[in-house]
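Side project, low priority. Logging it here so it doesn't get lost.
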Amino acid sequence: SSAVVIQGVSVGFVSDVKLQKGSEKILVTLDLDKDLEVPKGTRAEIFANGFMGTKSVRLQFPPVAERQGLQEPGSYLIPGAVGFLGANIPQEELKQYMQIISDGIKSALD
C-alpha cells in the first residue's frame, strides 16, 4: 500500500482505492495514525515518490492562521496531484528554475 506523509514523515497508508458508483471519481481511503489531528482545509495530494513511479499521498495542512477546526473521521479532503518535480523541489525554487530554462530557450531562438 502507498504511504501517506506530512513533510516526508509517514503518518499512515492508503487502505482502499475504488471507483465511486455512478461517477468517474475515485475514492481513496486513508488509514491515518490515531493521534493525528487533521485540520479542515487539508489537501490530500497524490505525488510521484521516486524515479520508479511509486505514488504516495502527501497531506498539506492549511497555514496555521487559516485553520478552523478539525476534519471529522471519514470526511473528505481537498484532492490534488503533484508531478515528480513539484513533489521534490520547493515551489519557489521550481519557479526560478523554470524562468532560467525559459530565458535560455528564448536566447537560443533569438
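Brief comment: DSSP finds two helices and six strands in the chain.
Revisit when time allows.
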